Amino acid sequence: MRVIGLAGWSGSGKTTLVTRVIPVLVGRGLKVATVKHAHHDFDLDQPGKDSWLHREAGASEVAIASSRRWALIHELRGEPEPPLVEILSKLSPVDLVIVEGFKRHRHPKLEVYRASVGKPLLHPEDDCIVAIATDRPLPQAPLPVLMLDDIESIANVLQAEALPRDHIGARASG
């Protein structure tokens, strides 16, 4: 299992890029998983459904299974958010994991940048960024620059720069 991330400010197009590059990687014969970091409360379950009621009653984990998919929901109940390496250890074996978010963790990342978002580039402060995908040229960039619509090249970088799971570090300080 190899791991690489997409990092960028909200609105930069990370999710759009993930949904465009996954079919290319799968078409190359790779089994791909994703990990998405949320900065807010989220719920996969629906209020009033049995599994939601189980959690509301105090269950720390609830597994939901059907003939089409299964999910495991773990309630933290005041525990700290688990580090990325712990989340990765819970995934089934795949060829490549694309991490969206977790921008302060130590793993190789492709920066997704749009000047129109009005935020600075991340790479000057993050030595884990291996390349930048953007919608306009960045001639002064010290890293490889890819255009956001060049999905094949982006897929190449994700494959080439991903590291084995056991090489992924913890949260960066600061």
Written overview of the protein:
With 174 residues, this protein is α/β, with parallel strands linked by helices. The protein has a single domain, classed as Rossmann fold (3-Layer(aba) Sandwich), CATH 3.40.50. Helices cover 22% and strands 24% of the residues. It has helices at 14-27, 50-56, 84-89, 151-161, and strands at residues 2-7, 32-36, 61-65, 70-74, 96-100, 109-113, 129-134, 145-147, 163-164. Strands 1, 2, 5, 6, 7, 8 and 9 form a seven-stranded mixed sheet that branches. Strands 3-4 form a two-stranded antiparallel sheet. Helix 1 (14-27) packs across helix 4 (151-161). The radius of gyration is 18 Å and the shape is globular. It starts with a strand and ends in a 10-residue tail after the last strand. The mean pLDDT is 89.
Task: Annotate the secondary structure layout.
Blueprint: E1 2-7, H1 14-27, E2 32-36, H2 50-56, E3 61-65, E4 70-74, H3 84-89, E5 96-100, E6 109-113, E7 129-134, E8 145-147, H4 151-161, E9 163-164
Parallel strand pairs: 1-5, 1-6, 2-5, 6-7, 7-8
Antiparallel strand pairs: 1-9, 3-4
Summarize the structure.
The chain is an alpha/beta fold. The protein has helices at 14-27, 50-56, 84-89, 151-161, and strands at residues 2-7, 32-36, 61-65, 70-74, 96-100, 109-113, 129-134, 145-147, 163-164. It is built from four helices and nine strands, in the order E-H-E-H-E-E-H-E-E-E-E-H-E.
Q: What portion of the residues fall into strands of 2 or more residues?
A: 15-25%
Total count of strands: 9
| C-alpha termini separation | 28 Å
* N-to-C SSE string, H for helix and E for strand: EHEHEEHEEEEHE
- The figure for the number of domains is 1
CATH overall fold name: Rossmann fold
Biggest sheet character: 7 strands, mixed
Mean pLDDT: 89
**Rg:** 18 Å
User: Helix- and strand-based class?
Assistant: alpha/beta
Low-confidence stretches are none
Molecular shape: globular
Q: What is the CATH H-level superfamily?
A: P-loop containing nucleotide triphosphate hydrolases
CATH C-level name: Alpha Beta
Binned, the helix content reads 10-25%
Number of helices: 4
* CATH-level-2 architecture: 3-Layer(aba) Sandwich
